[in-house]
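Section 5: illustrative case.
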């Protein structure tokens, strides 16, 4: 819950620094104003980033980030436009612009969700995060019982036209993996062409787009490794593609993992799937988020320590979300 801002007393209002106190208390908070009028809905968010004193008595500067979203109904369809801008407001002894002038304090999570959607889609799919009424919610909370992994908003924007995408879940099949790689290439090429048409490019957007492409490729490569763990020419094969991947993530899976010592000089990880049993080989260290694990972090991890469960069974990712990426041994 957001903490309410302090309200100055009548005595405080007579002090020249009372407004400054209010603004400093507002740093890090987001204010929201929403209005509706004749088919137009307008929402304005204002994030107070910093308050700086100046050399002039009674003067100070307020750094803000403003996000304005306007939804209009045109020909029975809702369209969105938005603008994000940063700036500095100058406060003087002659003005008394209070934080409350920018609306009520709203949760930071709401602000991050909306701005994240703007960065990822630039208007597309904003409807997902701007629901007017509870009855507009169309999500059905039923677990997806097909192999899949979750995507961030930015990652989902890279495969937004894929038939294998269900909101923030991506269904894993051999065709879906090929489709995803093709879609990433297509979206990154489109983004490059768009950059050539603009005099200036938002560096934050570019950085997040490139990072999302890297993490999505990593997730797809892991899905391919999981697919290699099960080679069956049956209709059930698609449901078992990520069985090993689920086991490595510590999720319920048909595959179980354990550490086996054949003799004092030969030991290692093995997987069990039905009647099948085979050794596993180490590929690299991975993170549950899908991002790459830096070499300096990976250097301090020991594969054996991940098998300290009952009968030397695998215990899943560690407290930092790091786990070993394994695959069936090729020898």
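Designed sequence:
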């Amino acid at each position: 819950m957001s903490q309410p801002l302090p309200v100055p007393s009548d005595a405080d209002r007579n002090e020249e620094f009372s407004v400054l106190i209010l603004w400093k208390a507002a740093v890090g908070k987001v204010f929201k104003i929403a209005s509706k009028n004749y088919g137009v809905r307008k929402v304005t968010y204002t994030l107070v980033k910093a308050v700086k004193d100046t050399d002039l008595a009674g003067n100070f500067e307020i750094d803000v980030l403003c996000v304005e979203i306007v939804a209009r109904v045109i020909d029975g369809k809702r369209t969105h436009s938005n603008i994000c801008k940063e700036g500095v407001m100058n406060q003087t002894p002659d003005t008394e612009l209070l934080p409350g002038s920018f609306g009520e304090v709203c949760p930071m999570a709401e602000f991050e969700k909306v701005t994240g959607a703007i960065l990822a889609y630039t208007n597309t799919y904003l409807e997902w995060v701007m629901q007017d009424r509870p009855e507009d919610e169309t999500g059905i909370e039923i677990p997806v019982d097909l192999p899949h992994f979750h995507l961030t908003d930015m990652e989902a924007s890279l495969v937004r036209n894929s038939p294998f995408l269900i909101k923030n879940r991506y269904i894993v099949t051999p065709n879906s993996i090929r489709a995803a790689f093709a879609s990433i290439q297509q979206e990154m090429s489109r983004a490059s062409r768009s950059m050539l048409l603009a005099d200036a490019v938002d560096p934050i957007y570019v950085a997040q787009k490139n990072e999302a492409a890297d993490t999505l490729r990593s997730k797809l490569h892991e899905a391919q490794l999981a697919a290699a763990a099960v080679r069956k020419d049956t209709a059930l094969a698609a449901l078992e593609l990520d069985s090993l991947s689920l086991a490595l993530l510590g999720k319920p899976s048909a595959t179980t993992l354990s550490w086996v010592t054949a003799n004092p000089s030969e030991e290692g990880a093995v997987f069990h799937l039905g009647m099948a049993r085979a050794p596993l080989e180490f590929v690299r260290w991975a993170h549950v988020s899908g991002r790459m694990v830096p070499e300096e972090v990976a250097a301090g991890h020991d594969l054996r320590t991940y098998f300290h469960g009952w009968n030397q069974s695998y215990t899943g990712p560690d407290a930092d979300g790091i786990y070993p990426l394994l695959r069936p041994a090729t020898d």
